Amino acid sequence: MAYDTLKEQGENIIPYLTKAWTDICEAFLQEVKRSYGKRIPTFDEYLENGWRSVSGVVILTHTYFLLDQKISKQALECLEDCHQLLRSSSIIFRLCNDMGTSSAEIERGESVNSITCYMNEIGCSEEVARAYCSSLIGEAWKELNRIRVDDDSPFDEFFVETTINLAQIAQFLVCFANQFVSERGNTFFGGGQVNIKVFSKTPLNLLLVFRMP
User: Fold this and answer.
1) 105, 99, 87: which is closest to 167 by C-alpha?
2) How far apart are CA 185 and CA 178, in angstroms?
3) N or C: which end of the chain has fewer CB within 10 A?
4) What's the whole-model pTM score?
5) Residue 187 forms beta bridges with which residues?
6) What is the residue-wise DSSP string for 103-127?
7) Residue 196 to residue 176: CA distance in whole angstroms
């Protein structure tokens, strides 16, 4: 990918890929340190690290260079600085991931996700914590929609839509489907089994097909 981009557009993208991977590895390391020290961070501390560790920025950075578009210097700078487009999409990704798995994690005694961090910090119920996370997801969607109609966005329309697709996929597959997924990817609604199949022709543009037996 790096070689093809250099040959076709004259841009050395290795520093941008390296930074994306460095950032996520540092975020993983921070999570390991907290786990080893058995320290529950504040909600803001957790989320600031969590949107980085959820892998959204790594996915989108690679996707940007894989799309058939002209690479601009402004877009590269925004990728390097984790533009709000990438940040908001990753926040939705992280919060949906936590909301989809937090109940099971609480049952297992695992204490570090956005729900439990908020419960620990505020002293509230899981229901209240979920409502707060849902409100943050709503705010992140408002930011994505603002960027979507911004004529001054540094990114091409297709990359903006692709980034929004990542958030949409996260909200469905992670936040909702995870609550029903059993072994081997089958889900159960009202006693009926539903098989989920995912087809992809372009990066992050997915078609979900539900089939009832």
Assistant:
1) 87
2) 10
3) C
4) 0.80
5) 181, 194
6) HHHHHTT---SHHHHHHHHHT--HH
7) 13
